[in-house]
Specification:
Blueprint lengths: L18 E3 L14 E3 L6 H6 L3 E2 L8 E2 L4 E2 L2 E3 L4 E8 L2 E9 L3 E2 L3 E6 L5 E6 L5 E3 L1
Parallel strand pairs: 7-12
Antiparallel strand pairs: 1-2, 1-4, 3-5, 6-9, 7-8, 8-10, 10-11, 11-12
């Protein structure tokens, strides 16, 4: 016969703070104070970190929204025409490209140069343009 011994060390695992959706939130929708409420009805710093982020998937009213359910808002979408800039000192070259994926600010995305059909990788800037190094 196998006997089990249970030890209790008094440890409590804290779960990260979550927000609750007030209504159905579709993928890509931005989290605001109007469309969410904190669990426990007290706003904390952890909750503020979720505000302004976009949800990755559909979240239904009453469901919890955690950090892993969010991403930075998408500034560039797949197949979108974007401005691509190469800057080195006083030299700046701008051209039009087609985004081969989607990305948010400060994330990398492959872009196809429409003239040469060459694919390069660049970083999305806050204005929605791509900086290629």
């Amino acid at each position: 016969m196998i006997s089990a011994i249970v030890f209790s060390f008094g440890l409590t695992l804290s779960t990260p703070a979550a927000l609750t959706a007030n209504d159905v939130m579709r993928s890509g929708e931005i989290i605001t104070q109007e469309n969410t409420s904190p669990e426990g009805d007290v706003w904390q710093d952890e909750h503020a970190a979720l505000l302004g982020r976009a949800v990755r998937r559909t979240i239904y009213a009453g469901q919890s929204i955690r950090q892993k359910d969010t991403q930075t808002p998408r500034l560039v979408k797949r197949n979108q025409l974007v401005t691509v800039k190469y800057m080195r000192g006083p030299l700046e070259i701008s051209l039009t490209g087609r985004a081969m994926g989607e990305a948010g600010a400060n994330e990398t995305v492959p872009v196809m140069n429409l003239q040469s059909r060459q694919v390069v990788e660049g970083t999305v800037q806050a204005g929605g343009w791509i900086w290629v190094k």
